[in-house]
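As promised in the previous annual report, we have extended the structural survey to additional targets. Below is the entry for Carbonic anhydrase.
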Amino acid sequence: MKTHTSETQATVTPALALQFLREGNARFVNNLRMSRDLLQQANATRDGQWPFATVVSCIDSRTSAELIFDQGLGDIFSVRIAGNVINTDIIGSLEFACHVAGSKLIVVLGHSSCGAIKGACDHVELGNLTELLSKIQPAVYEERQTPDPAKRNSKNAAFVENVADLNVRRSVRAIVNRSYILEHMIAAGKVGIIGGKHDLASGEVTFFDDTWLHDSASMQIIAG
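The corresponding structure token record, generated without further manual editing, is:
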């Protein structure tokens, strides 16, 4: 399979980009990955790149976006940080990916059994990690399905997964609320954004449809 060019990238809509990722994940789950000549793709993209999507995911070694979405060199931007948290540098990277390099979709991808989420649930403090985990803490406090204080920790798998889902949704909102550039590109239908979660056991990615923003009407979710 050949890599994307400026011409093929220009034909991709946010919805089509999402479809590409859904199809790629289905191939991954069913072990039907496309045959690619990675050396050919490396040579084809040496003078430029035209990725159709950008994935913000965790640094976890089992969550490589290129693998779980069955994409090749030059197909997607991959932004990785523990706990898929959002900061100014990541937002700047997303603005570059979409406004400068033409990416049509942003995916914020959490995953099951996330170590960073567990650390935040346990209020871990360790060097510079403390500041990173503090960005997840609002999702910990926002979790309302676990009223018993004794169960609000990493030993409670359900609590951890609830916090992980909330953290993804908060990250989607943070990107839109903190970037004038991306907010207006999404409202204009030039870029879409959605959250999702990768299940480590099955490999399947579940997209959160309630976070799918792709035009001015859907942006009312954020406004509300």
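DSSP finds eleven helices and five strands in the chain. Residues 6-223 form a domain with the Beta-carbonic Anhydrase; Chain A fold (CATH 3.40.1050.10). These points will be discussed at the next consortium meeting with the crystallography subgroup.
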